[in-house]
Write a structure and sequence with these properties.
globular
């Protein structure tokens, strides 16, 4: 075979060899980094590293006993229902609502599945685990309006929160429950008061 043809054949083979060696080296480095991360995790969570996880047969859905074993092997800590901005809104909104009608209450972090029901199991599954930040509840414990606090960046491109909100909003609309947004940095106390006056009927002693 002519030398110039051999040279053309050797070039692709050399390139393949270089790529193969590079791939092996990359995999080795990735495995090393992964091992170091696992070791660091074990140091930060020694109680988890020592506690074996209960095994479950493949394909079997976790029942109450499985869940109990999993919970017993884990640790939990309490956390606030609302962040600082949401908590400030909750306190201000609660003060305004109760002042206008003592029979109404403001609820925090309410599961949509507790407010709504549907005969369509698939549709109900779409909203069951979703939550709304605040709910205005009347004297009959009926949810009347949902209030969502939108922080900075909530509607930025690529943020899935807006899509999730659209699902909740449509379900609530069909159930006759109002949906309102309070936007960080733009909704002033006077505007919040007007919203409460519009949504909550004024209490009038008989």
């Amino acid at each position: 075979m002519p030398p110039e043809i051999l040279a053309l054949i050797d070039k692709p083979l050399s390139l393949v060899a270089v790529l193969f060696v590079g791939a092996i080296a990359g995999m080795t480095v990735e495995q090393l980094v992964s091992k170091r991360r696992r070791a660091a995790w074990r140091q930060r969570n020694p109680w988890r590293a020592r506690t074996p996880r209960p095994e479950r047969p493949p394909g079997k859905a976790p029942d109450a006993a499985d869940q109990l074993r999993t919970v017993m092997a884990a640790q939990f800590s309490a956390q606030p229902l609302l962040n600082r901005s949401e908590a400030r809104l909750f306190k201000e909104l609660d003060r305004m609502v109760v002042a206008r009608n003592p029979g109404w209450q403001v609820m925090a972090q309410v599961c949509v599945g507790e407010m709504l029901r549907s005969r369509d199991a698939d549709a109900y599954g779409c909203i069951n685990a979703k939550r709304v930040d605040l709910v205005l509840m009347d004297g009959d414990c009926q949810a009347r309006h949902a209030i969502e606090y939108q922080g900075n960046g909530h509607h930025l491109p690529g943020n899935a929160a807006a899509a999730r909100d659209a699902v909740k909003k449509e379900a609530l609309r069909k159930a006759g429950i109002g949906y309102h947004e309070v936007v960080a940095g733009t909704t002033m106390p006077a505007e919040l008061r007007k919203l409460v006056e519009r949504l909550v009927p004024e209490f009038k002693p008989s």
